[in-house]
Design goal:
The structure holds two protein chains of two kinds.
Chain A: E1 3-8, H1 11-37, H2 52-84, H3 91-111, H4 127-149, H5 158-177, E2 180-184, E3 187-190, H6 194-229, H7 236-250, H8 265-277, H9 279-291, H10 297-302, H11 304-327, H12 329-335, H13 339-368, H14 376-408, H15 422-427, H16 430-460, E4 467-472, H17 487-491, H18 495-519, H19 535-546, H20 561-567, H21 602-610, H22 612-615, H23 625-629, H24 637-646, H25 653-657, H26 659-674, H27 678-694, H28 705-715
Helix pairs in contact in A: 1-2, 1-3, 1-16, 2-3, 2-6, 2-13, 3-4, 4-5, 5-6, 5-7, 5-18, 6-13, 6-18, 7-9, 7-18, 8-11, 9-11, 11-13, 11-14, 13-14, 13-16, 14-16, 19-28, 21-28, 26-28
Chain B: H1 3-10, H2 18-39, H3 42-49
The chains are: A mainly alpha, B mainly alpha.
Chain lengths: ~725, ~60
């Protein structure tokens, strides 16, 4: 058979590595700034685009899609070419993938701090970016599958199956979850409402973890661990079982993010059952990765690459043991909304994704630059500082989560809450937030040491060039099974069929859970007293979304005695039918807000936004002074209402027509209420007078953003507080 | 969007066998998977698992002839 010569594209790999480390440092630094905001809440006082709520999605997106995303592409582009003995299909697709992805990241880094967000976790980017992501993702997939078609290696190694599953599933998840009606260039409303939106979002959110943070990295593990240890994977058979069972089961587990919420019980329980089953394939994979090092453990002592990988796989094992544990309803009742979850995700991100990326990059960079690692000692230092950082981050967060959740549930003998003021439970865990910030700092110091080491390695080496390789062309064989060829062996050389089967495997779970929520009329029991938001409340809700309030405040009172006592009546599915998008949240750094309506006066809210610590001593909420100064943009209100009508919210044409007048009336009412505070009256009148004397235009309070926000907050959860309980036809799910 | 298939779903005769069907799909999925894995040929497995370790690079940076 004639040998063919060809070049592996190494330049694209090195570009992705540079992007990985660059965005890694940025994403982690934003995270560190956020960690310090727990300790110094007013560190960016008055700067809207540096406020906690707006930076949190920037941190999560930068780490997941910029740091880890670029690492995935680097590893996939390197290993795919070698596993298939072929250059990537099209150079222009590789470059489109690279530059398109970086452009999206830059766009995210600009728009998220400006408050353009859909508020759906890990899918915050607005609709133009959603379209761009879909295009770039398809370019990646086309390049991957194109390379498979022109490969010189008959059988597709298991790593490639994981890459294929990643491509297909992320595409499906992204498209379904991003369905929205655009209102303007950077504003849209989710096509789903309330419970349905929550179900779709966490089907996406959970599987973003599964198919963006897990399957591609498992593929990388099956390539780079054997490479680094110089021995084949422990059990290839186990890897096959691992692959099919993991993708088949993972997709069902999303509802475990919504336990004790208003999601129907059958869907919650389905999520629990599959989450527990998930332990088997996850640990199968972990064991397969670790046992690949059998007989090579002495190398782990000296090789920093293997050190990083061993801790990474161990972190994967811990996080995937914890996941099923957290899915048990009794454990979830404690952990949900608390810092326990923050610990859990950071074990995954810092250990599994972060450390695996570092190990892979330490292996790749010397290869690409044809040299040796500049300093093994420095890499060891990175390893130890980083490991200490992970421990210092995770342990205090476990303690904080458990402590705070226990305090939330503590009762006095007379039946009242032991810690009735939410802030009492927060003050207790501030020391843990300090330790977390120190742990995070250590991790970043480690990463910076790594960057220095990698730069020095690259400088000592040669220029990255495309690498010449030689392999025999693939002999034509029939598309049918050859004699004695087993079924899966045949499937392994049919990439398109393998892709289709993998797609079927992942679609079953999603379809079973989501389609009933969309097609069954009585899926959500309607409550007659629940009405759409007024135009001013709708505008206020959009500000709530813009400021990222959902990052710290849930709107989901779970049916526990402790929560009903603290917040009020537990949430009903029918209360959220007009919520496009849902705002249940996933973390309570501050108290739940579902029943905050009418709990405080309008003046209290104004003072609280101006200086949270003045109304709530010890609060770590930043001030929102810009809401009080800024004019409310009412130019899109009618368009927003019309978009809502398209989505099934029953606004009448008459209501749309009188939207401006309606907002003015409700705003004036709130302004009047604010006058009951003598301090407000004095300063506001003084401001007005000063403007008049200087001949400057004066912005009436009723036209400012804070009034819309107050209108929304005062409405929250009040629809079912009607006098006649019987009129709220609530039925159990 | 799903309105047109909704009626059909609800009016299926014997819709109650669906849980049994889904259990069977689930069960058979794993039976077939394990059956394949345990009957796979050893030499094939050895061959495939060594793919990452094959080195076909020529270790030169000279251009093609």
């Amino acid at each position: 058979m004639e040998l063919q010569k060809f070049y592996y594209d190494n330049k694209i790999v090195s570009k992705f590595i540079i992007a990985t480390m660059f965005w890694g440092i940025i994403g982690m630094s934003v995270g560190l700034l956020l960690a310090f905001m727990f300790l110094f809440p007013n560190v960016t006082d008055g700067i809207s685009w540096l406020s906690f709520g707006r930076l949190r999605p920037l941190h999560t997106n930068a780490v997941i899609f910029a740091f880890i995303g670029n690492a995935i592409f680097a590893g996939v582009y390197y290993s795919t070419q070698r596993l298939l003995k072929a250059r990537m299909w099209k150079d222009w697709l590789s470059n489109l993938n690279f530059w398109g992805w970086q452009a999206i990241i830059v766009g995210a880094a600009i728009t998220l701090p400006l408050g353009y967000t859909s508020s759906k976790e890990y899918a915050e980017l607005e609709w133009p970016f959603d379209i761009a992501i879909a295009i770039i993702w398809v370019a990646f997939g086309a390049n991957l599958i194109g390379t498979m078609i022109k490969r010189r290696q008959r059988h597709l190694y298991v790593a490639l199956w994981f890459y294929l599953a990643t491509f297909v599933t992320v595409a499906v998840l992204h498209i379904v979850n991003s369905m929205a009606i655009p209102v303007s260039a950077f504003k849209s409303y989710s096509a789903y409402a309330g419970v349905q939106d929550a179900l779709v979002q966490w089907w996406y959110g959970h599987n973003a973890v599964a198919f963006f943070l897990t399957t591609p990295f498992l593929g990388l593990m099956y390539y780079f661990v054997p490479k680094a240890a110089n021995r084949p994977v422990y059990s290839y058979k186990l890897s096959i079982v691992h692959f099919w069972s993991l993708i088949f089961i993972y997709i069902w587990a999303g509802p475990h993010h919504l336990l004790y919420s208003s999601l129907p019980d059958w869907a919650q329980n389905l999520g629990v059952a599959f989450s527990i089953m998930l332990l088997a394939p996850s640990w199968g994979g972990m064991i397969n990765g670790l046992l690949t090092l059998r007989g090579a453990w002495d190398k782990v002592r000296v090789d920093p690459v293997l050190k990083f990988m061993v801790v990474a796989i161990t972190g994967y094992g811990m996080a995937t043991f914890e996941g099923p544990l957290l899915s048990l309803k009794n454990v979830n009742a404690i952990a949900h909304f608390s810092d326990w979850i923050i610990a859990h995700v950071h074990v995954g991100a810092l250990a599994w994704n972060g450390f695996f990326t570092f190990g892979m990059v330490y292996w790749l960079v010397p290869k690409l630059f044809k040299t040796k690692l500049w300093s093994v000692k420095l890499a060891d230092a990175h390893f130890w500082v980083g490991t200490l950082g992970i421990i210092m981050y995770a342990l205090p967060m476990y303690v904080a989560g458990f402590l705070q959740a226990s305090m939330w549930k503590q009762f006095n003998p007379d039946g009242t809450l032991a810690y009735g003021n939410f802030l009492e439970t927060l003050v207790e865990i501030i020391p843990m937030y300090w330790m977390r910030a120190i742990g995070g700092s250590l991790y970043i110091i480690g990463a910076l040491i790594g960057v220095v080491n990698l730069i020095m390695t690259a400088r000592a080496g040669q220029k990255v060039t495309d690498e010449l390789a030689e392999a025999a062309a693939l002999e034509k064989v029939t598309s049918k099974r050859t004699s004695k060829e087993a079924y899966h062996t045949w499937l392994e050389r049919r990439p398109v069929k393998l892709t289709i089967f993998a797609t079927v495997a992942i679609l079953i779970g999603g379809a079973v859970q989501i389609i009933p929520s969309l097609i069954v009329d009585d899926y959500i029991p309607m409550i007659s007293s629940v009405k759409p938001y007024t135009p001013l409340e709708l505008e206020g809700r959009d500000i709530y979304i813009r400021e990222g309030c959902v990052g710290c405040h849930s709107q989901m009172v779970r049916p526990f005695r402790s929560e009903v006592e603290r917040y009020g009546e537990y949430s009903k599915a029918g209360e959220f039918v007009y919520d496009h998008p849902f705002l249940w949240g996933s973390k309570r750094t501050g108290p739940d807000l579902l029943r905050v309506g009418k709990k405080y006066t309008d003046s209290w809210h104004l003072n609280h936004f101006y200086d949270p610590q003045s109304t709530s001593a010890g609060s770590i909420m930043p001030s929102y002074k810009w809401l009080i100064a800024a004019e409310l943009d009412k130019s899109d209100t009618e368009a927003k209402m019309k978009a809502m009508i398209t989505l099934g919210v029953p606004y009448t044409q008459k209501e749309v027509n009188r939207a401006q007048q309606w907002m003015d009336e409700q705003g004036t009412e709130i302004e009047k209420n604010l006058y009951s505070d003598p301090d407000f009256k004095r300063t506001y009148e003084a401001d007005k007078l000063r403007a008049k004397q200087k001949g400057e235009p004066f912005l009436e309070m009723r036209n400012r953003e804070v009034v819309a926000m107050i209108a929304y907050l005062q409405r929250l959860g009040t629809d079912i507080k009607v006098k006649n309980a019987a009129s709220t036809a609530v039925s159990n799910n | 969007m799903f309105k047109f298939i909704k009626g059909n779903l609800e009016n299926i005769d014997g819709v109650s066998i669906y849980p049994m069907v889904s259990l069977m799909i689930f069960f058979l999925f794993f039976v077939v998977l394990l059956w394949w894995v345990f009957t796979a040929k050893k030499d094939h497995i050895a061959e495939v698992s060594n793919i990452p370790l094959e080195d076909d690079t020529l270790n030169t940076n000279e251009p093609l002839l």
